[in-house]
Each structure stands twice: as structure tokens, then as C-alpha cells.
């Protein structure tokens, strides 16, 4: 099982938008996706 982990910088850098876009793309390709936030 491949894992993709991302850790981005300070707030306001668009990390939520990027995470959601990546999750939607992977999901549309049939991959299982789990998003965890604070």
C-alpha cells in the first residue's frame, strides 16, 4: 500500500485546499483516501 504524507508550512498557505483537491483526485482514480485535520 502506497502512502502519501504532506506537511506544509504556516497557516494561510492553502494546505486545506491542496489536501482536498489531492484527495478528490486520488478518490476518482479508485484509491482509498483518509484526511485527518486538527
Question: Which characteristics define this entry?
Answer:
1 helix; globular; single chain; 38 residues; mainly alpha
Arithmetic mean pLDDT: 82
> What overall form do the CA principal axes indicate?
globular
Are there runs of 5+ residues with pLDDT below 50, and where? none
The number of strands is 0
Summing up helix and strand content along with how strands pair, one would put the structural category as: mainly alpha
Query: What is the distance, rounded to the nearest whole angstrom, between the alpha carbons of the first and last residues?
Result: 25 Å
Strand content: under 5%
Oligomer: single chain
Topology order in helix (H) and strand (E) letters: H
Cα-atom radius of gyration: 11 Å
What portion of residues is helical? 25-40%
Largest sheet: none
Count of DSSP helices?
Answer: 1
Task: Write structural notes for this entry.
Helices cover 37% and strands 0% of the residues. The protein has one helix at 15-28.
Write a compact overview of the structure shown:
The chain contains 1 helix and no strands. It has one helix at 15-28. The model has no long low-confidence stretch (mean pLDDT 82).
Helix and strand arrangement:
Elements: H1 15-28
